[in-house]
Amino acid sequence: MIKTDILIIGAGPTGLFTVFEAGLLKLKTHLIDALPQPGGQCSEIYPKKPIYDIPGFPEILAGDLVNNLMEQIKPFEPGFTLGERAETIERLEDDTFVVTTNRGTKHNAPVVAIAGGLGSFEPRKPPIPNIVDFEDKGVAYIIRDPEVYRDKRVVISGGGDSALDWSIFLADIASEVTLVHRRKEFRGALDSVEKVEELSKIGKINLITDAEVKELKGDDHVTGVGIKHKTEGDIHLDTDYFIPLFGLSPKLGPIGDWGLEIEKNAIKVNNSYDYQTNIPGIYAIGDVNTYKGKLKLILSGFHEAAIMCQSAYQRIFPDKKYVMKYTTVGGVTGFDGTKKEAKKEVVKAIG
Amino acid sequence: MSDITIKIKDREGKVHEVQAPTDMAMNLMEVCKAYELPVEGTCGGMAMCASCQCYVLSDHELPEMGQDEDLMLAEAFYVEDNSRLGCQIRITPELDGLEVELAPES
User: Fold this and answer.
1) Across the A/B interface, how many CB contacts are shorter than 8 Å?
2) By CA distance, what is B50's nearest residue in A?
3) What are the binding positions for FAD in this chain (chain A) (predicted)?
């Protein structure tokens, strides 16, 4: 069991900055995120897009903001459970919480801060009527172990980097790779597009453009797909696997069933005080929460994180007094033994 | 500058007639959100998520589709010939009377 002071669900900018604010109060933190890397939307959706409303940064790329935050929180040695989704929460007799992920990793903390943004990122599933019935029976949205596809027939659909990259990779492993995309144009990196074109010319990838997989066939496992081609009509293709790769989209997911008060896909909090939810000890900060006048901005998440950590401190140490200190005065003392502080003024008399 | 009127059919088939300002640099996705219609706008308007996809029902001449929007629609679901991303449609006086329908959630 992983133990910490504040368990943060969501490693986007708000969750990451919570580590810093908690660290100033000597509170330990651990983050859970469904994505394999920290940064949330900033890393997953728009790492190369500039953000113009981060105070003090006239312009910063979303990816750079995440890198800076990681650097800023490093002294506080946060723990990470990445690539796992927070699934269930239970309150123990000692008033602490246990959060378990979809892979069974357990975390225990007296305070839980949900900084889940719009939710956890889940693969986008194409609207094929019986697709859910074939999940793990020939349909996969994520490739975990490419060896599964050795000497098998695979149909991939999608037009982005992951569809291109996996088609290239599997071309050497699978007995047959077909890439189906609705257009002739692909959204991926130029060299990946060129590589797919090259592999298709030498027959290592069967490229079908202007077409869409509309149907899945099979009894207890996929045996074929029905493809609708813009000009050539319906095509049937025998296959062992169908891998739709259409990126990820956020869903509030299991957090919605934790007994928290939800309003319009967001968690209601007490914003006049500390961003606590209707369950004492569980806070919600950043884009995931809602209250009158809420602004879904990164800067609002930072503010909410600072306030929330003060309240968490009082919850964890009800008898201790704490006075908020400025980093300009006290510096930053990391759990890793590092200390950052302003240089002392040198006073020297003349003469 | 005066507001324009837009008719937005939601996913239950209900038509909402809304007023949108032409001088606030707003786009159709933001108008939907302002009126609390069920549009997520996950990516905030960067043509990167397609959660604001809509079908254009009236024959207004819309601004030409940029490459970002075109390629996002190439990967979105439930795409029809009249599909557009709401976030890429800026509210201008020419769009007065525009009629759109929200595409299914995906």
Assistant:
1) 48
2) A249
3) 14, 33, 41, 46, 86, 121, 287, 328
CB–CB of A62/A40 below 8 Å? no
Tokens of B32: 């939907």
The distance of B62 to chain A (nearest Cα, Å) reads 22
Quote the tokens at residue B68.
């970002």
Helix (H) or strand (E) holding A21: helix A13-24
Can A2-121+248-320 and A125-244 be said to share one CATH topology?
yes
Give the contacts of A49 (CB within 8 A, at least 6 positions apart).
Answer: A61, A62, B46
Q: Do B106 and A127 touch (CB under 8 A)?
A: yes
Identify the sign of the CA torsion A319, A324, A330, A333.
Answer: positive
Per the CB < 8 Å rule, is B51 touching A41?
Answer: no
- Tens of pLDDT along chain A (351 residues) come to 999 999 999 999 999 999 999 999 999 999 999 999 999 999 988 898 899 999 999 999 999 999 999 999 999 999 999 999 999 999 999 999 999 999 999 999 999 999 999 898 888 899 998 999 999 999 999 888 899 999 999 999 999 889 999 999 999 999 999 999 999 988 888 999 999 999 999 999 999 999 999 999 999 999 999 999 999 999 999 999 999 999 888 888 899 999 999 988 899 998 889 999 999 999 999 999 999 999 999 999 999 999 999 999 999 999 998 777 789 888 999 999 999 988 877 788 887
Q: What end-to-end distance do the CA atoms of chain A give, in Å?
A: 65
The type of residue at B83 is: S
Domain chopping of chain A, boundaries:
2-121+248-320, 125-244
CB of B46 within 8 Å of any CB in chain A?
yes
Q: How far is B43 from chain A (nearest CA, A)?
A: 7
- As given in the structure block, the two tokens for residue A69 are 């935050």
Residue of A nearest to B37 (CA): A264
Q: Which fold does the domain A125-244 belong to in CATH?
A: FAD/NAD(P)-binding domain (3.50.50)
- The rounded distance, in Å, linking the Cα atoms of A305 and A284 is 9
Mark yes or no for CB contact B43/A182 under 8 Å: no
For residues A110 and A93, the answer to whether their CB atoms sit within 8 Å is: no
Question: CA angle A26-A29-A30, nearest 5°?
Answer: 165
ipTM above 0.90, yes or no: no
Instruction: Say if the Cβ atoms of A246 and B77 lie within 8 Å.
Output: yes
> Residue type for A145, please?
D
Whether residues B49 and A45 touch (CB distance < 8 A) is answered with yes
Supply A184's token pair.
Answer: 């002739």
